[in-house]
Amino acid sequence: MIIPRTIRRFQDRRTHRNGPWAALFEAYGGDEVVSLDCETTSLDVNRAEILSIGAVRIQGTKVKTSDRLDLRLKPPQSLSGESIKVHKIRASDLSDGIEIEEAMDLLLNFIGNRPILGYYVNYDIRVIDKFLRPVYGFGLPNKAIELSHVYHDIIKWKHVGGDIDLRFDTIASKLDIPIIQRHTALGDAITVALMYVRLKHGQAPVSTH
């Protein structure tokens, strides 16, 4: 039986509220958002293994590019020629990669209980949860913000009928945001962060170093 994420989050919060990761389950009261992206071996969550993780914090109109996470993991045996064509990551590029357990620990400490932003963010969360839950006993409890939904909800009032193109490259073009290192985890995370700031604040994002 597939348990809905909301029910699992409630169960996880009840189980871990007094544990070492209790802070993750507290309501977030700050003003930061974390833009997150993963590069994986497959778009099928059940088969996907994580190759790299990129994340950057956003505070108001500032994309804090110096406050970022850029992780490469050890190459999985499932790394194939087909997946390499998409993300251009070869096994040799991951020769100094870290173990998945270390990556999960670094990720949890970087995100904390901040909301997680992404493009098709639920896919990234589901893949992370697949590796997080066996080790920690819980999935990411954070609020998720889907960039394409934010874009759709903001611009739909400017369109009368017709479909809205929600492709990554189209959204970036419409918002006049440069695409940074496409199909790299950190590049996509920063690009999504810049698009989010433009959508929420209607002005050119400020990048801090």
UniProtKB/TrEMBL annotation:
Its EC number is 2.7.7.7. Keywords: Exonuclease, Hydrolase, Nuclease, Nucleotidyltransferase, Transferase. PANTHER family: BLR4117 PROTEIN (PTHR30231:SF7), DNA POLYMERASE III SUBUNIT EPSILON (PTHR30231). Pfam families: RNase_T (PF00929). InterPro entries: Ribonucl_H, RNaseH-like_sf, RNaseH_sf. It comes from Marinobacterium lacunae. One of its GO terms (molecular function) is nucleic acid binding. Residues 32-205 form the Exonuclease domain. It comes from the Bacteria. One of its GO terms (cellular component) is cytosol. This is DNA polymerase III epsilon subunit.
